[in-house]
Write the structure tokens for this entry.
Amino acid sequence: MVRVYQSWLLDFLLSSLRDGSSSIQSRKLSITGHGYSLRDIQGAITVGVMVDVLQLWDILSDVVLQPEREDKHIWRFSSSGQYSAKAAYEGFFLGATLFAPWERIWKTWAPPKCRFFMWLVAHNKCWTSDRLARRGLPCPDGCPLCDQEQETINHLLVQCVFAREFWFILLRQVGLQALSPQPTENSFLDWWERASNATSSLVRQGVNSLIILGAWILWNHRNRCVFDGAAPSVAGALVVAGEERRLWTTAGARGLSLLSAHLPGD
Ligand SMILES: [Zn+2]
């Protein structure tokens, strides 16, 4: 808690007051006994000025001055009461909400465009048909991959029968089919978090890369169906995923290499 006394408080509050009002050049408060009185207010007494004065009066009303004590400034963001740059910096983040999947998105090896795509997914900013429909824009009637449900990003990436078959085969290629999304799964991010946490630290980076890769392939396959009239094909998507995985591995995705190293005959 900040505890301030006497002239330091007055100077501070008055300078704040002055900065916030252009109608007054200078104002002073003088202390009489245990209370305060206004003196020497220069400039026009506008409604704004009166509001400022009343607010200041209100703030000061609970302050009991102790003339024999020195001013003391206590920095409330540190337990010691002493200011430090570290405590000030940490104070910026008080009340901030944590973006849970940031580490999986930004610390995983994947091309920047794919990580940015995942960031869009996490914020539900992909132009799936539900989002297009909300804005009155032309959109596919149903999911372009299964034509059974309305398309949302969670449907497209984990709920769709097409997506679930795709994930099962993709993960089975590295012996991790147990991580595949179940029919009851309704959130891609929740599934990703569980799948990632269910793996050992040794393969977690590779699994995270593979999941980003799979989501990217599903999104691009969906776009080819919507914009190029391509027919949905799990086998076709898996072929592209395999090519992409080899390219990522060649480009330096070590976690993915580690998964691939366990592949029989890969
Ligand atoms: Zn679908």
Observations:
- Residues 108 and 147 are 33 Å apart (CA to CA).
- Residues 102-261 form one domain.
